[in-house]
Amino acid sequence: MAARPPTDPPDGPPAVPPAGPSVPSLDGRQLRSGPLIVTEDDELIEALLKLCAAAGATPHVVCGAPPPRQAWEAATLVLVGVDVAERMASLARRPGVLLVGADLDDAAVWQKAVAIGAEHVVFLPDSEPWLLDRVADAAEGVGSPALTVAVMGGRGGAGASTLACALALTAAREGHRTVLIDVDPLGGGLDVLLGGEEAVGLRWPDLASSRGRVNAVELEQSLPRLHRLAALSWDRGDTLTIPVEAVRTVLGAARRRGGVVVLDLPRRIDDAAAEALEQADLGLLVVPAELRAMAASSRVAAAAAMRLSDVRAVVRGPSPSGMTGAEVARGLRLPLAGELAPEPGLAADLECGRPPGARPKGPLGRFCTAFLTEALAGAGLTDGGGVAA
């Protein structure tokens, strides 16, 4: 069977997210609707049913066109066979329509795609991996990806893990779906900082064999739930490395559900940290306002900048020599994300199991609130996307 990658139809509508997450079903119940398959081609139906099963989606099949209006409007994704496309032109335009076929020599396929408002023309079997991802995204209700922030320390003890925890705690407190991921095997464990080292849930060694695509909802539900956020950390065993493929898979799943993902990275950029940086939207380099810390931080900044274009300095004061945050950032040739004053009572809080950022009006809480407000607005995520359930 001839094949071709998915292609935008000429002059077709721009790609937009699938329909909303909760829609009325055909019998009136409120359910998440699965993909709608419309075709009379038995071979195509069999192929699409197998693909939906692999994606964990339950489709509704209509062997005839046009389908009922309610089914057309409710489906998260519509897969239309080329064989029935001409009978679909009378239906209202909607996002999430794909025209599926196998005949590359059908010159009329592009006109059919435009007539039904298809976002893509998909030729099987070569495009099955791409289509599998689209069906899985629809089944999971995927919208805009999460704002992903990578936090690194310019030198040992700079406070990167403290800031990462505080950012995640602030995002969760403000109602965003939040995942905190510890990518530093020698950092002592973010679950400890959150007071949840005994919490039930998966740790990195449990996910080391992850490959391909992990269901985002199932991943989040499997992680320890601490302070209204999901946290992925290390156990107390001897595992110190995780395959890059596992890091890529897990981070990709965490980001798909939207909201905020915070990554705590080691100073040494190993393969796992490099993968995490490449998935991040921006990075924060925590730098104490000291000359030696600046010297060490310059190397970390250079390594991070090779994989992430937006790296900003967070300067911790006070400076023994009176340097300002702007001077430290300028010396590192980084934009200044902000300055952090000492947090009163932080050491005592940690000993008592109170996590960093638990005080909204403290220096950490104020910095994190201001930073997230600006970063989410810059990413266009201030309209409620990724709000925690």
Care to describe what's here?
Helix 1 (42-55) crosses helix 4, helix 7 packs across helix 8 and helix 8 (244-256) runs parallel beside helix 9 (271-279). It contains 13 helices and 16 strands. It has 389 residues and is an alpha/beta fold. Helix 3 (109-116) links the parallel strand 7 and strand 8. The longest helix is centred in the C-terminal third of the chain and has 16 residues, at 363-378. The strands form three sheets. Strands 11-12-10-13-9-14-15-16 form an eight-stranded mixed β-sheet, sandwiched between helices. It has a six-stranded mixed β-sheet with strand order 1-8-7-6-4-5, sandwiched between helices. The chain has a two-stranded antiparallel ribbon with strand order 2-3. The two termini are 44 Å apart. The radius of gyration is 24 Å and the shape is elongated.
Structural class: alpha/beta
Order of helices and strands: EEEEHEHEEHEHEHEHHEEHEHEHEHEHH
Major sheet summary line: 8 strands, mixed
| Number of continuous helical runs | 13
Which range does the strand content fall in? 15-25%
Principal-axes shape call: elongated
Q: Could you tell me the radius of gyration in angstroms?
A: 24 Å
Distance between the termini: 44 Å
Low-confidence parts = 1-32
- Strands, total number: 16
In spatial order, strands of the major sheet run 11-12-10-13-9-14-15-16
Percent range for helical residues? 25-40%
Average residue pLDDT = 85
